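User: Please predict the structure of the protein below. I'd like the answer in structure-token form so I can feed it into my own downstream comparison script.

Assistant: Understood. Taking the following sequence of 172 residues as input:
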Amino acid sequence: MPENVENQEVEETSPEADELDALRAENEDLIDTLQRVQADFANFRKRATREQESLVERAGERIVRELLPVLDDLERALEAAADHEEVKLEEGVKLVHRQLEQLLQREGLAPIETDGRFDPHVHEALLAQPSAADEGSVIEVLQKGYRLGDRVLRPARVVVAGPKEGPSGDPA
């Protein structure tokens, strides 16, 4: 009878041992899968970083390539200035200005409108002067402002109309 008891214990531990072995094998498979996913992610991150650096480099290269004709025209304008050919100098500078403006517009640059009311989001008031214009309106642009897409690159620096002058010359 003691043999039957021992056999039952062996039989009872045998399914538990099989289950334990199966769990260990599953655990090893999951660890292996996790390590592969980690390696894949690390490779992806490195590749994405390389691609981003390459894109930035190519973008800079493209804008520089488009600026080369502007540089050439500016050099020609400077040569005309050295020869005291004022008419050619003026034409050359206008040509350079027009080319540069067109190139930057193609890249999404747009001047900030300065007609009308002062807008603190796109204008920088450097001075407020008494004026016949409506108070808070832009009366003079000291430096043009620009947007690149939806972002303000540089606010327009402006003079804003202050309170109107009274008959005695004092602000009303």
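That's the full token string. The mean pLDDT is 83.
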